[in-house]
């Protein structure tokens, strides 16, 4: 090699290994062949090295011979362990003085390299190159080109950047360890329970030498069984079996556990066999009833889920015997069925006999009669008590007409328009017409749908016929599930107590106006009926039953169905969620019943759906804590997320009634519920559907409780599988139909799934295997690692459930989870902002959608998600960017003006960073004040890490910081005191649809002081004439234009008069006598108050003023000054002389400033004297801001000579009255 040759640069097939030489020692020997006298000739080895450099540690580097100007040289590096040294200045023949010799190929860590290196020589350095092909033992990443010296660094890199490969490595290590070392397997929970059952059965037989007796039944040695039987946990299991055996079952029999044969390692409950032979199980009355009620054309295999523990052959044999018994002789000679074959009688119809509960309700009706105000209604109510059709007649008196509500059609879209401007106009008209009906509908269309013209035209609107064709088979399909209760529990007589007036009044007061039911009755009409009459009707409904069907709306239990899409772009009618909207009369009654049921029959402790607690936070944080605990403590954990297919629409009516009967619900309510299920109808369009077998209405107040009560039977059957990881007890979690099951092994989870499938089959439900998933975490406590087992196989009816891998995620309650816990998911903010920005809406409408719909949509993800601070800051910047574009705010408008609450003068757009911290802190605090389990979850370190977020010196960290930053700015310091009257901000969130967008923009810019004036334009060193052209030698600023400039004095008077006209119009609508600007001659001159209001008992003097936004002279001080001006004896005498002598006189001032803020005393005086209402102060503020902006526009269009006052255009000077 010669100097300057291409070899002086590193070849492409090589790569540098490191850049720093530290803690490594390298001896580099540079030798020239034939240099110096040597006895070995010209090719003999020299006696000493010519160059020696001390730098670092490594492995032996092979010798390489190269050519240089001085002849062939041989370079060799020997690496050994030694402390690092400073490079001494050395010199070698053919090389320059190289005190800065660079040795590449070393690293700053302590791992020794055992590979070969190649070197090349330059004029001032010796470089080492590493060949990738020669470095297999080096700590290099097998996936990406990254390389490391330490094995721990490589492990951390693979764990963070390549989780799938990292998980495969751990799986291979675990498989290797299990196949090579360990032959002894840990005892599982199933083995312990099985051994305890066998021992319990053997103890009842008096077996001795128990260890020897148990050995043939278990795959364990005698010593293993003997040691395990001494443990406390096994003794506890055996003791629990003994206590259960002492309590008889529902049929009076005691539990019997029979051991299986020694050859069967994993028996099921139905396959247990004794050593002496098979013990059969008798058919119960419930099982025989299921067989008798099933039609003959139903295959035997479909009845297996309804009869747990029965095989297809047993069901077929028993059905044949039942058919033979039916075909036998009938008469006195016919043999009576045995006790175990007797079938429970069919439930009796809705009886009208006077029971104790009915007598109590009847007495209450007679007691409530005197409280009915109308004597005619009182007499009819009295007659209705003794009439069998009394409820129908009295109900028709108050609800005589069928007000069937027809669904309003969506705004039409013209087809075939090609011009882009015309298309945008069509979209704009479509959204504005939709906004008049419901702003919420506009927000949903903008954020969830394609609002281009092509999208509106091509969008398929599902008709009522489409929904009817798809959903009618779902609602009306038969159901063979039966859980009728042969052993009813103790009666709950408090459920059948009379409906109280106070309960009905409380429910009516808590309701909000919403969509009416099929009868068209709205809540305000129902509130006009005396609550005593409504309570009388509810009690009469329990006694007499509902009225018959009337017209197209069916009866009072008929509900019209509205469909809400579950996906962004539904392609099928089944991808909607049916919501039943019932009549207000039934909704109120069912809410009263639901509150009673909830108090008397509480749901299972693992069911947190539809309860008065934070069930979402409880389940999400508990699942996150469980996954973190299993990973950190290296425990085995199997998690199954279960989805029930069409749960609310498929649950069996007979199963619900049977469960209620076993719970002890009185016959009075049972009769009402049977009538409700049998006569209820669903209205889709003009057609009625009769779901007589299954389904509870989504939207009915009583449906959540009924569904939870039925699902409690499933949860109670899964309680024995509880496991403990650390301080967390895991068994199951439920939020309505969203279930999470926990297990310690794959076999245990498979048993839980099978038991769950059987239990759901008895309720008429089934699992949706496509939407279920399984996560299996396996840990090795000895070697301290955990990994995801992707070889787990759990199936439902032969369909294998999807498995969560190390890189995949699953969704539960709207939160994304992976095997580590809550996963990091990016915000959907950018996509939503783009859709909202492109929507054909006015600026005020976009701002309202952003504040009320878009940001609240992200609250759930902000509460339970994992987000970086940078992502939150980026989202806030994107929000501020679009707000500035919509409102045309300048770039120097402070960020605090956008994020400060509206009551303090800002726009009230929440900051993501503030929301992220506030929501997490509030939900965690609320959970910590719950029960004992909630407090334990809130104190978990993993939960604390997820739900904690701290600011680091940010202005956006608190509301106080935002307000302080806003009020110290030059342009916005005049907003101080805005919070004293929050009513002036109502126009921000309730801007009228007929308000022009540019008027709203200008009102915002005036309020924030961001209008373009010479004073603002001169900032930054720009040369601008800042002297006003009115000739007053004052700086032309926004306060000067609003309050002092003579050029727009006419518009300033007009602004004042517009406020006076608006207030006078409101007072005239309230039937007040209003005199505008009366001329009062006093001893001190002429006085002209704006308004004199003549009330019945007093005279009110009201004067309006618009003052500067001075910090020194507050609005309250200006208000007191104005009151003192007219509250003088000579003024009051003049008013008495003109309008009346005996009436008292009160003086009130309506004080605003040019930014739209009002004096607190003015607000209190107007509200106290009932002159103005809360909603009137916002339009006055908006009116002042709009007129101030027009004054600035007139100033810019005035001539430059200030001596002559210009006349503003007719548009500017037009009357601004509302």
From TrEMBL:
Top-level taxon of origin: Eukaryota
PROSITE patterns: RT_POL, ZINC_FINGER_C2H2_1
Residue ranges of coiled coil: none
Domain Reverse transcriptase span(s) in chain numbering: 545-792
Pfam families, alphabetized: RVT_1 (PF00078)
CDD domains per UniProt: RT_nLTR_like
Region (Disordered): 244-282, 323-352
InterPro entries: DNA/RNA_pol_sf, Rev_trsase/Diguanyl_cyclase, RT_dom, Znf_C2H2_type
Name of the protein described by the UniProt record: Reverse transcriptase domain-containing protein
Organism this protein belongs to: Acanthosepion pharaonis (Pharaoh cuttlefish)
């Amino acid at each position: 090699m010669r100097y300057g040759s291409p070899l002086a640069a590193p070849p492409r097939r090589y790569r540098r290994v490191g850049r720093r030489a530290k803690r490594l020692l390298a001896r580099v020997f540079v030798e020239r062949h034939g240099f110096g006298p040597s006895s070995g000739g010209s090719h003999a080895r020299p006696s000493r090295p010519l160059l020696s450099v001390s730098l670092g540690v490594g492995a032996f580097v092979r010798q390489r011979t190269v050519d240089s100007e001085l002849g062939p040289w041989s370079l060799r590096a020997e690496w050994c362990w030694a402390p690092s040294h400073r490079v001494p200045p050395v010199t070698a023949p053919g090389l320059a003085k190289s005190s800065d010799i660079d040795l590449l190929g070393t690293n700053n860590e302590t791992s020794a390299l055992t590979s070969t290196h190649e070197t090349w020589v330059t004029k001032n350095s010796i470089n080492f190159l590493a060949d990738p092909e020669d470095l297999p033992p080096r700590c290099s990443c097998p996936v990406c080109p990254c390389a490391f010296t330490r094995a721990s660094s490589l492990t951390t890199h693979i764990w963070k950047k390549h989780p799938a490969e990292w998980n495969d490595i751990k799986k291979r290590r675990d498989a290797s360890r299990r196949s090579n070392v360990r032959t002894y397997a840990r005892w599982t929970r199933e083995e312990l329970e099985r051994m305890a059952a066998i021992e319990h059965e053997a103890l009842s037989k008096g077996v001795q030498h128990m260890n020897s007796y148990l050995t043939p039944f278990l795959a364990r040695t005698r010593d293993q069984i003997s040691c395990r039987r001494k443990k406390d946990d096994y003794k506890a299991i055996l003791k629990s079996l003994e206590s259960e055996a002492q309590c008889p079952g529902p049929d009076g029999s005691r539990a019997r556990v029979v051991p299986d044969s020694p050859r069967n390692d994993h028996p099921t409950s139905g396959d247990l066999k004794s050593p002496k032979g098979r013990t059969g199980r008798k058919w119960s009355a419930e099982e025989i009833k299921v067989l008798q009620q099933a039609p003959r054309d139903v295959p035997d295999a479909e009845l297996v889920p309804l009869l747990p523990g029965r095989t297809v052959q047993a069901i077929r044999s028993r059905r044949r015997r039942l058919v033979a018994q039916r075909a036998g002789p009938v008469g006195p000679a016919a043999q009576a069925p045995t006790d175990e074959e007797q079938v429970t009688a069919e439930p009796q119809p809705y009886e009208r006999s006077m029971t104790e509960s009915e007598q109590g309700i009847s007495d209450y009706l007679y007691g409530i009669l005197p409280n009915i105000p109308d004597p005619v209604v009182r007499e009819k109510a009295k007659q209705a008590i003794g009439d069998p059709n009394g409820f129908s007649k009295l109900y028709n008196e108050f609800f005589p007409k069928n007000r069937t509500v027809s669904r309003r059609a969506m705004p039409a879209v013209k087809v075939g328009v090609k011009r882009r401007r015309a298309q945008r106009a069509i979209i704009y008209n479509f959204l504005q017409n939709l906004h008049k009906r419901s702003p919420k509908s506009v927000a949903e269309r903008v954020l969830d749908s394609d609002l281009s013209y092509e999208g509106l035209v091509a969008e398929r609107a599902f008709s009522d016929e489409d929904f009817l064709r798809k959903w009618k088979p779902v609602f009306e399909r038969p159901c063979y599930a039966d859980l009728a209760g042969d052993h009813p529990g103790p009666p709950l007589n408090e459920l059948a107590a009379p409906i109280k007036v106070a309960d009905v009044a409380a429910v009516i007061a808590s309701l909000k106006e919403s969509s009416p039911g099929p009868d068209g009755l709205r809540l305000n009409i129902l509130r006009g009926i005396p609550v005593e009459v409504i309570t009388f009707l509810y009690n009469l409904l329990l006694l007499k039953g509902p009225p018959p069907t009337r017209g197209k709306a069916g009866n009072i239990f008929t509900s019209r169905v509205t469909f809400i899409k579950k996906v962004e772009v539904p392609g099928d009618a089944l991808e909607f969620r049916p919501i039943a909207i019932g009549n207000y009369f039934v909704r109120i009654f069912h809410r009263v019943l639901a509150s009673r049921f909830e108090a008397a029959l509480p749901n299972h402790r693992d069911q947190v759906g539809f309860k008065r607690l934070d069930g979402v936070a409880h389940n999400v944080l508990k699942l996150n804590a469980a996954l973190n605990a299993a990973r950190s403590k290296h425990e085995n954990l199997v998690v199954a997320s279960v989805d029930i297919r069409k749960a609310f629409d498929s649950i069996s009516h007979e199963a619900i009634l049977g469960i209620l009967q076993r719970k002890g619900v009185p016959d009075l309510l049972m009769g009402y519920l049977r009538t409700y299920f049998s006569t209820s109808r669903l209205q889709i369009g003009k057609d009625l559907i009769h779901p007589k077998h299954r389904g509870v209405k989504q939207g009915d107040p009583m449906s959540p409780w009924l569904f939870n009560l039925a699902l409690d039977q499933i949860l109670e059957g899964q309680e024995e599988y509880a496991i403990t990881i650390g301080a967390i007890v895991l068994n199951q979690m439920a939020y309505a139909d969203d279930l999470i099951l926990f297990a310690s092994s794959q076999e245990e989870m498979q048993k839980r799934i099978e038991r769950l499938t059987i239990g759901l089959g008895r309720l008429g439900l089934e699992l949706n295997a496509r939407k279920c998933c399984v996560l299996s975490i396996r840990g090795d406590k000895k070697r301290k690692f955990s990994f995801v087992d992707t070889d787990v196989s759990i199936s439902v009816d032969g369909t294998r459930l999807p498995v969560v891998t190390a890189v995949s995620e699953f969704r539960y309650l709207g939160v994304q989870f992976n095997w580590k816990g809550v996963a990091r998911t990016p915000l959907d903010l950018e996509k939503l902002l783009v859709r909202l920005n492109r929507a054909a809406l006015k600026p005020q409408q976009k701002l309202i959608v952003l504040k009320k719909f878009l940001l609240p949509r992200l609250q759930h993800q902000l509460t339970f998600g994992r987000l970086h601070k940078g992502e939150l800051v980026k989202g806030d910047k994107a929000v501020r960017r679009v707000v500035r574009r919509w409102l045309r705010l300048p770039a120097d408008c402070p960020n605090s003006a956008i994020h400060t609450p509206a009551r303090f003068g800002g726009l009230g757009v929440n900051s993501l960073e503030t929301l992220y911290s506030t929501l997490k802190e509030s939900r965690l605090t609320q959970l910590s004040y719950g029960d004992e389990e909630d407090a334990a979850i809130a104190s978990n370190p993993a939960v604390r890490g997820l739900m904690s977020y701290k600011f680091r010196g940010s202005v956006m960290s608190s509301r106080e910081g935002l307000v302080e930053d806003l009020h110290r700015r030059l342009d916005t310091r005049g907003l101080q005191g805005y919070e004293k009257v929050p009513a002036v901000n109502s126009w921000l969130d309730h801007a009228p649809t007929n308000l022009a967008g540019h008027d709203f923009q200008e009102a915002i810019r005036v309020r924030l002081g961001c209008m373009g004036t010479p004073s603002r334009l001169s900032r930054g060193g720009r040369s601008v004439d800042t002297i006003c052209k009115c000739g007053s030698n004052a700086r032309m600023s926004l306060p000067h234009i609003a309050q002092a400039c003579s050029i727009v004095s006419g518009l300033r008077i007009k602004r004042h008069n517009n406020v006076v006209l608006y207030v006078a119009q409101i007072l005239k609508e309230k039937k007040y006598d209003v005199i505008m600007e009366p001329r009062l001659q006093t001893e001190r001159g002429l006085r002209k108050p704006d308004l004199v209001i003549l009330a019945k008992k007093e005279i009110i003097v009201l004067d309006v003023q618009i003052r500067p936004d001075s910090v020194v002279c507050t609005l309250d001080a200006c208000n007191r000054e104005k009151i003192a001006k007219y509250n003088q004896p000579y003024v009051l005498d003049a008013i008495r002389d003109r309008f009346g002598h005996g009436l008292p006189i009160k003086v009130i001032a309506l004080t605003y400033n040019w930014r739209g803020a009002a004096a607190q005393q003015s607000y209190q005086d107007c509200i106290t004297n009932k002159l103005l209402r809360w909603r009137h102060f916002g339009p006055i503020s908006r009116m002042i801001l709009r007129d101030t902006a027009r004054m600035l526009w007139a100033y810019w269009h005035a001539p430059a000579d200030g001596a002559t006052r210009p006349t503003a255009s007719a548009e500017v000077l037009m009357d601004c009255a509302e």
